[in-house]
Amino acid sequence: MRASRIHTLPALLGLAFFWPLAFGPLASPAEEAETGKSAAQIAEESRPSLVAITHRSRADGGQREGSGFVIAPGLIATNLHVIGDARPIHVTTSDERELTVNTVHASDRKLDLAILRVDEDDLPALPLGDSTDLPDGHSVVVMGNPQGLRFSVVEGIISATRDFDGVDMIQLAIPIEPGNSGGPLLDRQGRVIGIPAMKSHLTDNIGFAIPVNALKLLLDKPNPIPMERWVTVGQLSPRKWKALQAGARWRQRAGTISVRGAGAGFGGRALCLFQTQPQKMPYEVAVKVKLDDEGGAAGLVFASDGGDRHYGFYPSGGQIRLTHFAGPDVFSWNILADRSVAAYRPGDWNHLRVVVDDETITGYVNGEEVVSLSHKALRGGQVGLCKFRQTEASFQQFSLNAPRDRIHEDPELKEHLEMALDQWLAAAAGKDEAEASKALLDENPKTARMLLQDKARALDRQAAALRRWAVNLHHAEVNREMAALLANREENEIDLVHAGLLIAKLANPDLDVDAYRRELDAMAEEIRATLAPDAGEKAILTQTSDYLFQQLGFHGSRLDYYSRENSYLNAVLEDREGLPITLSVLYLELAQRLGVKNVVGIPLPGHFVVQHRPEGGDEDTRQLIDVFDAGKPISLQEAETIVSNATGLTLEQRHIEPAGKKAILVRMLRNLINIDLNSGDATQALPRLDLLLTIAPAEASERLSRALLLYQANQWARALEDIEWILQEQPAGIHLDRVEELRRRIEAALEK
Fold first, then answer.
1. Are 712 and 747 in contact (CB under 8 A)?
2. Most buried residue among 127, 403, 558, 647 by CB atoms closer than 10 A?
3. Could you tell me which residue, 617 or 503, shows the higher pLDDT?
4. How many domains is the chain partitioned into structurally?
5. Where residue 605 falls among pLDDT bands split at 50, 70, 90?
């Protein structure tokens, strides 16, 4: 995987030339101490460039306020959390003018930065300084709107630079309050050197700011999203869902629906109803739910009249409840069942299912029947989700009349699994330890206590082994699903998105593959609705590029290129940011869904692109497209420059031959494996190597890499299988004498 090309030498030289003209000459801290401005001067000069940014909270309907500042004509910088997702934004200047925001010009979720574009371009911009090597003790000023006190000033010093989850932050000896976020952190020359973003939880007198150089990179590579699109980010599809009871904020990020804030109904009740109703009796409705606070409640609702009458089945206070709501208040609320359920897992995902027939309601938790009773007050109506009080809840895999999950519903399978677990635990435990402890308790309690501690440590080891078993079982399941997906299929028949999502699922067992596939299908339908009936392939691709990169703001990762998230298709869909290859996969699959079959992936060294190859055309009609750069059409000469900058190689004909779908999947996995091997914890690479070899079993270099990792992990039998394969196949480029030596070491280890 190639290095990020943001800081190229020509760009840095150009910046060095332009800097004195744009921002004034840089001064040393000593020089600044002599020539620096007072806090009063800085406040007076910067105030015309400051803005207050407000949006209405969906949690309680109240106004949320933060700060921002002008950085160029029509552009305002702030924090991403200040503007929020899926809501209108209001911007007010220091002279009380209301500005219209037409675009979120750039945004980065990890850095918590956003740049807004407004219609007005007559506001003075603050000069941007340099946040490189800021000295501790440097005197600074913060401007903002703390607690709604607009355009206030506070001064202090820089305490240190800290790393927070891979992002360098400036630690400030300044109290950062709600409302300060998004304002400018200014040096004594009045230049912006950072953007306050968060307050310390340890003390009121410490805050943290994002270095301004990160903002410059965002400004250099924007990913604009029009406001009419921004307000739909994370919203539930109105075609599928209808939220009731204002106050609760329902959101969806592809496969997961989340809700926070109390609803306006009694007890903070909030409903979100599925727009497809049950068509016949009996029916079943199911969902996976996780609560952040077991003191609250969230789960399924059914037989709803669209108002206050419905049933609910949900965890509450650690119990499982079946309730009947006959009206808007507590007097019309009837608890039909309230059970303690051993199968329920507090703080974790739990599978709820309700079967409704003409007479009976039956509820299940994680496959175990917990309640079945006759209650016929309500039938028909809608099904959906519910939550109560201030609980924040997440939902996955909602289904109506869906097939039953075999692991939950097959008693034979469940019994077989429990028997296997019992056998494993019996073999792992010291069978006579309990008897020894009992005997020693009568004679020597001190020794008995020590034995009990030994037992506890043994149980800890067993628990760790069981967790490893669960993880390995998940990895094996993903490998099996990948093998089934690829089996007996031609390259052009492989569902590349499904396979790419399985790569992501390897690291996230809860990932809902089908939900993300439906998300891509819905995106294709949105594009299709904008096309003329006779649109040709070129017009379709032009509209696809406009939709992805201009309307939705998908973009190449600028500041966190080596994040694993950039290689996970679900994260790319959610955050609209990714690597050249993952963005190319989305582009290719959208084109396929829109009927454009002549778009292929081109595996340039260090930088994946796509190419349109019109049917019947020649090389002159073929067009390379760089999806990492907003779908920009590029020439072969530009491709050669990209390859040279990324790798130092010369572009060859073989580099522009189309990559098959299996080759694309292998390249995606190699990107992740390289990150794993460079992370200091190479064991993370093992399951990805397994998956790669499921896709491409003849890849000798990965097979050798897996053998070495297995050998280091003392999994000698598995390592020996790979060694034997290599020695039998004798692939080119492998030092077979060294492999022979490794085999001797493994065999010696197995004999011990």
1. no
2. 558
3. 503
4. 5
5. very high
Q: Evaluate whether residue 580 is within a structural domain.
A: yes
Q: How many helices (H) and strands (E) does the chain have?
A: 21, 34
List residues bridging with 335 in a β-sheet: 323
| Structure confidence at residue 421 (pLDDT) | 57
**159 backbone φψ class: left, alpha, beta (φ>0; ψ -120 to 50):** alpha
Rounded-to-5 percentages of helix, strand, coil across the chain: 40, 25, 35
Q: Which two tokens stand for residue 314?
A: 């949900």
Residue 223 shares a structural domain with residue 245: no
407, 442, 471 - which closes a domain: 407
Could you tell me if 261 and 362 lie in one domain? yes
CA 155 to chain centroid, in Å, comes to: 36
Mean pLDDT taken over the chain: 83
Q: Which H helix or E strand runs over 452?
A: helix 445-486
Residue type, 591: A
Last-in-domain residue among 392, 407, 422: 407
CA distance 130 to 365: 56
Q: 670 pLDDT band (50/70/90 cuts)?
A: very high
Does the residue 444 lie in any domain? yes
**Whose CA is closest to 538, among 624, 600, 596?**
596
Average pLDDT, stretch 629-653?
92
What are the start-end ranges of the E strands in 47-100? 50-56, 63-72, 75-78, 90-93, 98-99
- For the cut 90, the answer to whether the pLDDT of residue 200 exceeds it is no
**Looking at 203-207, 298-302, 673-677, 725-729, which range is the least confident one?**
203-207
- From residue 492, give the alpha-carbon distance in Å to each of 43, 93, 533, 600, 689: 62, 55, 26, 10, 24
For 184-308, list the strands marked E by DSSP.
185-186, 192-199, 207-211, 225-226, 241-243, 249-253, 256-260, 270-274, 283-291, 297-304
Residue 174 tokens read as 């300044």
Q: Give me 494's structure tokens.
A: 């492989």
Residues annotated as catalytic (active site), given as ranges: 81, 112, 181
Band the pLDDT of 118: cuts 50, 70, 90.
Answer: very high
CA distances from 680 to 636, 674, 675, 684 (A): 38, 11, 9, 10
Q: Are residues 90 and 123 in the same domain?
A: yes
Residues 431-458 have a mean pLDDT of 60
Query: Which one-letter amino acid corresponds to residue 732?
Result: A
Same domain for 144 and 246, yes or no, is no
Give the DSSP H/E element, type plus range, for residue 159.
strand 152-164
Based on the fold, state whether residues 53 and 182 are members of the same structural domain. Answer: yes
For tokens 């109240």, name the residue.
62
Give me 99's structure tokens. Answer: 């500005």
pLDDT band at 34 (very low <50, low <70, confident <90, very high): very low
* Cα separation values, 168 from 171, 175, 210, 562, 628, Å: 10, 19, 7, 16, 25
Are residue 496 and residue 608 in the same domain, yes or no? yes
Structure confidence at residue 408 as a pLDDT band (50, 70, 90): very low
Is 26 a domain residue? no
448 lies in which domain range?
410-486
Average pLDDT, stretch 158-170? 79
Neighbours of 470 (CB within 10 A): 11
Query: Per the domain annotation, does 64 fall within a domain?
Result: yes
Query: Which whole number is the average pLDDT over 68-83?
Result: 91
Nearest to 609 by CA among 560, 570, 656: 656
Pairwise CA distance, residues 488 & 494, whole Å: 10
Give pLDDT tens digits for 694-713: 999 999 999 999 999 999 88
Residue 163's CB: how many other CB atoms inside 10 A?
8
